[in-house]
Amino acid sequence: MILLAVLFLCFISSYSASVKGHTTGLSLNNDRLYKLTYSTEVLLDRGKGKLQDNVGYRISSNVDVALLWRNPDGDDDQLIQITMKDVNVENVNQQRGEKSIFKGKSPPKIIGKENLEALQRPMLLHLIHGKVKEFYSYQNEPVAIENIKRGLASLFQTQLSSGTTSEVDISGNCKVTYQAHQDKVIKIKALDSCKIERSGFTTPNQVLGVSSKATSVTTYKIEDSFVIAVLAEEIHAFGLNFLRTITGKIVSKQKLELKTTEAGPRLMSGKQVTAIIKAVDSKYTAISIVGQIFQSQCKGCPSLLEHWQSIRKYLQPDNLSKAEAVRNFLAFVQHLRTAKKEEILQILKSENKEVLPQLVDAVTSAQTSDSLEAILDFLDFKSDSSVILQERFLYACGFASHPNEELLRALISKFKGSIGSSDIRETVMIIIGALVRKLCQNEGCKLKAVVEAKKLILGGLEKAEKKEDTTMYLLALKNALLPEGIPLLLKYAEAGEGHISHLATTTLQRYDLPFITEEVKKTLNRIYHQNHKVHEKTVRTTAAAIILNNNPSYMEVKNILLSIGELPQEMNKYMLSIVQDILRFEMPASKIVRRVLKEMVAHNYDRFSRSGSSSAYTGYIERSPHSVSTYSLDILYSGSGILRRSNLNVFQYIGKAGLHGSQVVIEAQGLEALIAATPDEGEENLDSYAGMSAILFDVQLRPVTFFNGYSDLMSKMLSASGDPITVVKGLILIIDHSQELQLQSGLKANIEVQGGLAIDISGAMEFSLWYRESKTRVKNRVTVVITSDITVDSSFVKAGLETSTETEAGLEFISTVQFSQYPFLVCMQMDKDEAPFRQFEKKYERLSTGRGYVSQRRKESLLSGCEFPLHQENSDMCKVVFAPQPDSTSSGWF
């Protein structure tokens, strides 16, 4: 009795987990012709789901399916013939009316006579246990047409029992899950698991990256082991992480319905399927059911030279602050990616010096083998006559969105060769460090070129004899952030002198929390508390900042707080501002700081009433549930009122991902002799120096020098014009996402998201003995354009959705100090200019013959300017006000 009960339960379980009547795949009846209707449609929109906002098209047909052969040794081994008939193409959006691109056109005119004939030729599908064994079609059919046939054929691959397995269909080799019910089967395909060769790349940093989600669900209604209806829906949605206005969605649907059955061809006899196929038509050939790559020919598109000649006026130096410059830069980069080396070289060699820097930016940003070979052939690193072009090339390499080993190998080769300019040699090594980090982030740490570059950086730093070489390798390590370089950094931070020690500590400051170990913090504590030797206050304050930002212990915080009051006056004020900023901004260390402050010995009036002008402040640029953008400014003065360091940072956060958007540091030292002041402890023997260093999008750039040495200082003061010195200027590709999708309907989709900016960061330091005043100025001018383009192509009709956002902004920081008396007077201001914010949307449908429909929208707002608070007495967040402008919409033929 128990045995019977167990068998009964097993039977019921098997029944509920499979479709009634069959347990493997679809099965056709002998000598019957199944007549079905089929349609596949695609829609593009921005995810709003309104039909009137969509563009797309539908391909429909009748379908005849017949069983040609069944293996006499097994019912689940079948050869079926599938034939598409009466193919038609139409709009999904029926509201298009008279504007429909298909109106008045017959299928042969839309699809093309040869394409239509190929599409309606029968195909054969060999199924074993419901899975595709082979797909047969005719040779030399257009790839795009074969893909549509593959999309239909793939619908016949299914299993009638629940379970998870791997299947090969038009989407590639994919993991699929079946959920079987009494009269239907649901098939869920994990599209992110599909293995298929397709081109594509993305920006590794999550803040600048693109998030995407893809789903595929197919529902089979089954009767008598065959489908009476199939409904498949595939959705691809994407969005730019830090800007929610850049979004898009592709919805692809397939529908197959059984209309009737009638007498069909008689079953062919035989044991070998190959013989049966040869008997049907010897011209049939087995081809992969996986979708194949095809490229639609662009009719009437300009050549690379013609494109360049049409846009070069926008890339003149005087026009770089305009959005048109960046927009055309992005479009030209896309064109360069399809160009050959000879075409690129021809343009480079024929251009004048005014536009060449912008052309070098574009060619380098293309990041193809041809563009790299062209630019390396064009630039002569042995000469110092083209330093500007060489620098623009190197910085574009540093900002590369998806660098490869070939690029790194080329820069290593240049570094080992002859370089005419010492500044360029230093920049090459700095950018090598940036490429090492990006390749390691993309799981490329074991590449031969990366291993060689690591040895070059670490070996060079360990063996460096000249101060210039030590600085160069430290800057490279500041970009590479190699964990194995930390012991060397600790050595230079603690034992190094002046500028070297400070550079080593600021390099340590860029490492993530897991690398700031107890051993590292022991060294930093010795530096801050000067246990072994006297250090400059710039080094000490940086060491303290690293400790406080990386899970400080109770005693570490207590010892730092107890030191306040025993430090030089301006350093006292600076450290006090750091602690107050941690508390006010609720930084991670705020909890432990509050615990320590409960002790009276650490928290008392004597310690917290210290006067001075140095400060530290962190504030919000933008704050939302989705993302946070912050700025921080800390300024440290010497006891005589002369600037020692100003540090302005901008960070962008999305979730736990962060991006160091920019950092501009102005440093000065050894200027006390000019006003007969006494240097602070540990700074008595410093040479006169002032310079500026910048980090842009996580890439450390080569620092620039205002003056170096007393004689240089005096000559600069006598001839000073007050003009700023440029740290970085150029066109930069910061967002770069390209994705080619094989839709299961057979259509090809592409998603392209690019973001570019024209940037000019400059700084100046003015010093007046007559007025006993110093002034520092940092100016950022940025024009940003972000574009996205989604297309779905069948080779004979194409639908697309283009969106773009652009703005032109400016941010200026000015600090003025009057040191004619003490306490000296300090005025600081950071202003953001009024900025336009424009959004564009373009939707289109286009036939390969050229006829098309387009709809365009434009929206413009004005972002008000504002002044950011820079000290705790004025901590209201700078509020950006949008002043909307009238929208504009247009649609029609083109």
DSSP, total strands: 30
Query: Could you tell me how far the N terminus lies from the C terminus, measured between alpha carbons in angstroms?
Result: 79 Å
Overall geometric form: elongated
**In terms of structural class, how would the helical and strand content be classed?**
alpha+beta
- Any idea what the radius of gyration is? 34 Å
| Low-pLDDT segments, ≥5 res | 1-18, 879-883, 890-894
Order of strands, widest sheet: 6-7-8-10-11-12-1-2-3-4-5-13
What about the largest sheet?
12 strands, antiparallel
Mean pLDDT: 87
Number of helices: 24
What proportion of the residues form beta strands (DSSP E)?
35-45%
- Percent helix, as a range, is 25-40%
Domain Vitellogenin: 28-659
Signal peptide: 1-17
Protein name: Microsomal triglyceride transfer protein large subunit
Pfam families: MTP_lip_bd, Vitellogenin_N
Secondary structure topology:
Elements: H1 2-16, E1 32-45, E2 55-70, E3 77-90, H2 107-111, H3 113-119, E4 123-128, E5 131-138, H4 143-154, E6 163-169, E7 172-180, E8 184-195, E9 200-201, E10 210-223, E11 226-240, E12 247-263, H5 273-280, E13 284-287, H6 304-311, H7 323-336, H8 341-350, H9 356-366, H10 369-378, H11 387-398, H12 405-416, H13 422-441, H14 448-463, H15 467-480, H16 486-495, H17 498-509, H18 518-529, H19 537-548, H20 554-563, H21 569-584, H22 590-597, H23 605-608, E14 615-623, E15 627-637, E16 643-654, E17 657-669, E18 689-696, E19 699-700, E20 704-708, H24 710-718, E21 725-742, E22 748-768, E23 773-793, E24 797-818, E25 825-832, E26 835-847, E27 852-863, E28 866-868, E29 882-884, E30 888-893
Antiparallel strand pairs: 1-2, 1-12, 2-3, 3-4, 4-5, 5-13, 6-7, 7-8, 8-10, 9-21, 10-11, 11-12, 14-15, 15-16, 16-17, 17-18, 18-19, 18-20, 21-22, 22-23, 23-24, 24-25, 24-26, 25-28, 26-27, 27-29, 27-30
